[in-house]
Amino acid sequence: MTTNSSNSTEKSDIVRNLESFTCVWLDGTINETDDSRQTEQELRQIINHLYTCNDEKKCEKYIQNITQEKVVLIVSGTIGKHVIPRIHDLSQLSACYIFCGNKKLHETWANQYSKVINY
Q1: What's the predicted TM-score (pTM) here?
Q2: Rounded to whole angstroms, what are the CA distances from 18 to 70, 74, 94?
Q3: To which H or E segment does residue 71 belong?
Q4: 65 CB contacts (<8 Å, ≥6 apart)?
Q5: How far apart are CA 35 and CA 84, in angstroms?
Q6: Which helix (H) or strand (E) is 48 found in, with range?
Q7: Minimum mean pLDDT range among 21-25, 66-70, 99-103, 106-110
Q8: Which parts of 1-119 fold into alpha helices (H)?
Q9: Is 119 helix (H, G, I), strand (E, B) or coil?
Q10: In DSSP terms, which residues pair with 70 in a beta bridge?
Q11: Domains of the chain, earliest start first
Q12: CA angle at residue 59 from 56 to 60, to 5 degrees?
């Protein structure tokens, strides 16, 4: 299983992914709560290439540097509201999933983007 936790998006941090998809999880609470640690552990059991990040700019740069595979983004609603408009049209972005307990709060803006799934 190839994984990469983020704190930097330098070229050396981009692990070669032999899969056609990579999953990027952007959330301000990654590794800060038991729930996020448990979710990450569960994702790593089913996803071959998972990149986690808690910084918007570093995550955007990481996604922009991906050239060989498609990206599935999991993002919190609050961060997604700012990031998705900036990256939605990138060809490598295949789908976005909003990971949030208050779906109603983010429904209006999320419905404006075709790559946001199930909103």
Answers
A1: 0.79
A2: 12, 20, 17
A3: strand 70-75
A4: 9, 11, 14
A5: 24
A6: none
A7: 99-103
A8: 34-46, 56-65, 77-87, 103-110
A9: coil
A10: 21
A11: 2-110 (3.40.50)
A12: 85
